[in-house]
Amino acid sequence: MLFWTLIGIVIAQRGIELVVAKSNERWMLSKGAKEFGQTHYKWIVLMHAGFFAFLAVEVLLFGKTAAPFWAVPFTLFLMAQAGRLWALSSLGRFWNTKIIVLPGAELVKRGPYRFLSHPNYVIVALEFLVIPLIFQAYATLVIFTLLNALLLLKIRIPEEEKALGWAINQKT
Fold this sequence. Notes:
Elements: H1 2-30, E1 34-36, H2 38-61, H3 71-91, E2 99-101, H4 119-134, H5 138-169
Helix pairs in contact: 2-5, 3-4, 4-5
């Protein structure tokens, strides 16, 4: 019961985020924004969908249950959700699941962006650790933590930095 409740809430949250992202995308593109990283975006989406599918298979196929220490990773999960809301609300209309930047726009430096360049990626990394920990799904934890690190550190973050640099330089 805990598994399906938590996963259902997270998937519903992601669905709402995609609706918000699409609205923000339309708004930004209407203002002259440019999209970067289109070639890797499908891999990001596939990784996130795969995470939930792999987690469900691991939990159901191997009869995983909530860990005896589930309250610890669950508390970290709740903190991550608060951080996610803080990051998304700090970016406002500029937040998106895609890399879309508005030429000449000021770099957001409020909220968690005062401390970190990419707080939402830290939050996703934390989720890929704590959600599987809640249910003792260690294969999911290892596989998707590594996939996430590979996609984010090697591809996504450098592409986003390039896009932000391009947008800032359009002002001058």
